[in-house]
Design brief:
51% helix, two-stranded antiparallel ribbon, Beta Polymerase, domain 2, seven-stranded mixed beta sheet
């Protein structure tokens, strides 16, 4: 039995990146031997085990044969007769097929070290095209590694273009597309994910509305950035999380009566993402004026954004607005904090003590809160 550190942990260490997770490859062992050593079965389909102490994943070496369409359409063989090279050659990219032995030596059977040196993302064998998920993974790895100088190998990009057909992509479940998209939004340069899918022709089949907005000649990498891509870049520059990045990318595409209907029909978008997008749409007519310290618009923004009740959510909303409407946002965050304090200084309880009730209380409350916000704006000038 030989045990190797494999995949991303080896790749990231060689690139000087933070190693987050470690996966292990076991060659020359059986399931029974793993269980005898105290490993815990972690997967019902594949021979993957959890270490009894570290809980890290240990997988038996395996061979795969394509049997039907889709990313699950493989026949899997595993056992002590499967060699290290056979396991590594079934993987997607050369830089993900490097292993490190127990002595710390890196073993490269597929050319991954040269591709790291050349900053090249390259497939291992033509069998790359048998799994449509690899098209998404290729785009996501470019989003992760382009900042490190990586680009797609020409031959790999050509295979991705061959895979970008309705027949091939029909095997991709919307849930998997969404999963890869959210992972990509967390990467250092997430716009590369969408641009890569656009260039190979896949985005038009997955999200045609976004593909049309990005526009340009899909066969060329260098083209003027569209507003969705520019907004996404601003969100990254603001060090915003995936929710804000999502809102920045899709806000301009979800206008009008239909709003997010097309997006929800295409992907199983999670509730938090849709909620933030709806929040941005709900304050769109107030934010530009509020950023200019218009007292009435500021009050409406604070109320609709539930600034007092949900401050963290409101902060995320204002961050989203700031990257969507950057020309209005230079001092907006500080101003809205001041305005929020001015609004809070006029409370319904205080007005109730003056004998105001019902509609009259609501009218006076609004008038006085606007006046307090206007005074705060005047003091800040």
């Amino acid at each position: 039995m030989n045990i190797y550190l494999v995949g991303g942990a080896v790749r990231d260490r060689l690139l000087g990146l933070l190693v987050k997770d470690r996966d292990w490859l076991v060659v020359g062992a059986t399931e029974a031997e793993m269980l005898e050593r105290g490993f815990i079965r972690a997967d019902g389909l594949f021979p993957v085990f959890l270490h009894p102490d570290t809980k890290e994943e240990y997988a038996l070496a395996r061979r795969e044969t394509k049997t039907e369409p889709g990313y699950k359409g493989f026949s899997v063989e595993y056992g002590p007769d499967v060699t290290l090279e056979q396991d590594l050659r079934r993987r997607d990219f050369t830089i993900n097929a490097l292993v490190q032995d127990e002595d710390g030596e890196v073993i490269d059977l597929v050319g991954g070290l040269e591709d790291i040196e050349q900053r090249r993302l390259r497939h291992i064998t033509p069998a790359f095209t048998e799994d449509p998920v690899r098209l998404l993974r290729g785009a996501r790895f470019i989003a992760r590694l382009s900042k490190q100088g990586f680009s797609l190998a020409h031959e790999t990009f050509n295979l991705m273009k061959q895979m970008a057909t309705p027949e091939e992509l029909a095997a991709l479940k919307p849930e998997r597309i969404w999963q890869e998209m959210i992972r990509a939004l967390n990467e250092p340069e997430p716009w590369r994910f969408f641009e890569t899918l656009q260039r190979c022709g896949a985005l038009a089949l997955m999200l045609p509305v976004l593909a049309e907005a990005i526009g340009g000649d899909a066969s060329h990498a260098e083209q003027p950035a569209s507003e969705p891509i520019l907004a996404l870049k601003r969100a990254v520059a603001a060090e915003a999380g995936p929710l804000v990045r999502f809102a920045a990318l899709f806000h301009s595409l979800c206008q009008g009566p239909a709003r997010t209907r097309w997006l929800k029909e295409a992907l199983p978008v999670e509730r938090d993402y849709l909620d933030l997008l709806a929040q941005v749409q709900g304050v769109a007519r107030f934010y530009p004026l509020a950023a200019q310290r218009d007292a009435e618009a500021t009050l409406d923004l604070l109320i609709r954004g539930r600034a007092r009740q949900q401050p963290e959510r409101f902060h995320r909303l204002i961050t989203s607005c700031g990257v969507i409407w950057p020309e209005q946002s230079a001092q907006a965050a500080n101003w809205l904090a001041d305005a929020g304090r001015a609004m809070a200084s006029i409370s319904p309880a205080r007005l109730s003590k003056e004998g105001l009730q019902g509609a009259e209380l609501g009218r006076v409350l609004r008038e006085r809160q606007i006046a307090a916000i206007a005074a705060a704006a005047g003091a800040a000038e």
